[in-house]
Design brief:
5-stranded parallel β-sheet; alpha/beta; 7-stranded mixed β-sheet; globular; 8 helices; binds magnesium ion
Length: 277
């Protein structure tokens, strides 16, 4: 089946064309936070749109830099908001980190994360004493000077830094919030060591997701609210890029962005209006 994204400049349907005219797309990589939901609330129309993709058997993966939840936790959160998504269609930064650690035969680590994300890492030995790797995610309110200093001492003792993602900030219900990237940067600065970044916009993360989807990159569109992680990252591996004006999207960032999205939609719910089967 071929899905045609028909891109016309029509104000009524809430999108505007930026660079492309027409593109045949067969599948999607869809960012979660800010695209399908904000906080605990689904974006209006997003549930129906995602179920429409499932019903039409349009291949897609949900790709996320969320580090506070395992894939199981993400699946239940989505379910609470009305999205019914098979686990295999969720591709997260912690899950990609597990693949990376396996490929590098990691033996021990220590996690600086919060939430149930530790479930993904159960196959590795967790130790406070000279871990081979420290894994950093968004610690939110659990971040303290003590924890940061503990991570710092581990790196000074030889541990390598695995950053689940290096996002600068994200959007909480009560406003913008500092993200794991700023904490990783602090550790890098103090230790003079570079972190291994796993999530978006790392090329390898997209390549793994593309491989899983089983389509050539040029036949895939990425949909995201983050102009750096989703749009610039996606464009670098040859994806068609669609920004949505929900979540952390800000016009100022768009003006400043080095890589502009191929297309901008008002919300994820505008997507089916672009299709011609
Ligand atoms: Mg997002």
């Amino acid at each position: 089946m071929q899905i045609f994204l028909i891109l016309k400049s029509t104000e009524q349907i809430g999108y505007r064309m930026v660079t492309q005219h027409q593109r045949v797309v067969n599948g999607f990589l869809i960012d979660l936070d800010g695209v399908l939901y904000e906080g605990e609330t689904a974006i209006p129309g997003a549930v129906d749109t995602l179920h429409f993709l499932l019903k039409k058997q349009i291949p897609f993966l949900l790709i996320t830099n969320t580090t506070r939840k395992s894939r199981f936790g993400i699946q239940s959160k989505l379910q609470r908001m009305g999205f019914r998504i098979p686990l295999e269609q969720i591709f997260s930064a912690p899950y990609a980190a597990v693949q990376w650690l396996r490929a590098h035969q990691a033996k021990s680590l220590y996690l600086f994360v919060r939430g149930d994300v530790f479930r993904e890492f159960s196959e590795f030995k967790s130790t406070l004493y000279k871990p081979e790797y420290i894994v950093i995610g968004d610690m939110g309110e659990d971040l303290t000077y003590e924890r940061l200093n503990q991570a710092f001492r581990m790196v000074m003792g030889g541990a390598r830094i695995i950053a689940l993602q290096k996002n600068r900030f994200w959007k909480k219900e009560d406003g913008l919030a500092i993200d794991a990237g700023a904490i990783v940067a602090a550790l890098e600065y103090a230790t003079r060591k570079r972190a291994i970044v796993i999530g978006k916009p790392r090329r390898e993360f997209f390549r793994q997701a593309i491989k899983r989807l089983g389509l050539p990159a040029e036949k895939i569109a990425i949909i995201g609210d983050d102009l750096e992680a989703d749009i610039q990252g996606g464009a670098r591996v040859g994806l068609f890029t669609i920004a949505v004006k929900t979540g952390k999207f800000r016009e100022e960032d768009l003006q400043r962005a080095r890589v502009k999205p191929d297309l901008i939609l008002g919300t994820f719910a505008d997507l089916p209006k672009l299709f011609k089967f």
